Amino acid sequence: MKRSIFLLALPFLLAQCNPKEEVVKQQPMPVHVAHPVARTVELTDIYTGRFSPVEEVDLRPRVSGYIDSVHFKEGQKVHKGDLMVRIDPRPFDAAVANADARLKQVEARHVLAENNLARAMNLVNKNAIAREEFDIRESEVKQAAADVLAAKAALTTAKLDREFADIHAPISGIAGKTIITPGNFVSGGNAGADILTTIVPHHPIYCYFEVDERRVLEFTRLYFKGEADGREGEPAKVEIAVSDSDEFEFQGTINFSENQLDPNTATLQIRALVDNENEFLTPGLFARVRGKVGEPIERMLVRDSALGFDQSKRFAWVLKDDNTVERRYVEVGSLQEGGLRVITDGLTTDEKIAVSGIQLLRPGAPLAPSEVEMVPNSTDV
């Protein structure tokens, strides 16, 4: 029985040891390759930013009282000086009348005190009254004068409170929603006063963006080489695009940069002022900010689509003499129009890189390369 089993397995064992078995060879993969091109380009960088209002005012009452009426529409444009909210003015009108009456009283006392002092002066010169009596009359005049000043100040305060009962827009802008409606009591005149609405102007508008440490150092080196202006130079211009368009259709002028990098993010905050006359841009929108870095200079360019990603690094597949490729990490610069990426280090114009099928490439794998032009927006795949 054991011998029969061995005889049945023998053909299989002999097949495994067959020296004539053919080895399947890997077929070369077709791939397009191209030389990097050298061109004079205007170096730019693109940053992520956000629009922010130049001003923002929380409209708060300066006096307390019941809301009598609201004179603005939510979400509508208001102008500086427009009446926004009116607090019931009757208590303040009464306070003004009371302060005015008080002033008239103390003014009458002041006049009487001055007359008494004048009579006392004649009498003291004739030795008809004691000197002490004269001093009392003189003191009464001074006290009456002080009472007049206090009454005038109280009247001024009462008039101010009456004025503050009519709340006007301190700036021009877009009004927010009405937070407190007529009939409600509002507390005013302190830091915790109720917010009635918020006014935010849209013209002009700020765009804040962050520049990383490496770009700050790069710009600083350009400055010390005389290839870029510093803080004292002409205000730099930037171009801005919003999220629904690839076109940088808005213009801004840098008018502020922080004096130190944020230690938590290693970035420098920069601010650009955008005219926004038609008020198309709204605070809070994201933006892509493109700014020029130095003067035009000759740089090497490759298709951005020909570069791979390895975490935060970029690499290209460089063609070797044996028609295989090696992965080469490169330093990249700004993206130019048409999809060409600036290469600052890692390649030469004598080398060729793969520009198609880069997701399928592996080091050492045989290729069948065909050379094409390194042109932007190519349809080569």
Please give a structural write-up.
By secondary structure, this protein is an alpha+beta fold. It folds into four domains: 29-41 and 297-371, conserved putative lor/sdh protein from methanococcus maripaludis s2 fold (Beta Barrel); 45-54 and 201-292, Efflux pump adaptor protein, beta barrel domain (Elongation Factor Tu (Ef-tu), domain 3); 58-86 and 165-200, RNA polymerase II/Efflux pump adaptor protein, barrel-sandwich hybrid domain (OB fold (Dihydrolipoamide Acetyltransferase, E2P), Beta Barrel); 90-164, Helix hairpin bin (Helix Hairpins). 25% of the residues lie in helices and 33% in strands. It is built from four helices and 23 strands. It has helices at residues 2-16, 90-125, 131-164, 213-224, and strands at residues 29-34, 37-41, 44-53, 57-59, 65-70, 77-78, 83-87, 166-168, 173-175, 185-186, 197-200, 205-212, 237-242, 250-257, 267-274, 286-292, 297-303, 308-310, 313-319, 325-335, 340-345, 353-354, 367-371. The strands form five sheets. A six-stranded antiparallel beta sheet has the order 2-17-21-20-19-18, with no helix packed on it. The chain has a six-stranded antiparallel beta barrel with strand order 3-12-15-14-13-16. Strands 4-11-9-6 form a four-stranded antiparallel beta sheet, with no helix packed on it. β13 and β14 (250-257) form a beta hairpin. It is elongated, with a radius of gyration of 41 Å. The two termini are 63 Å apart.
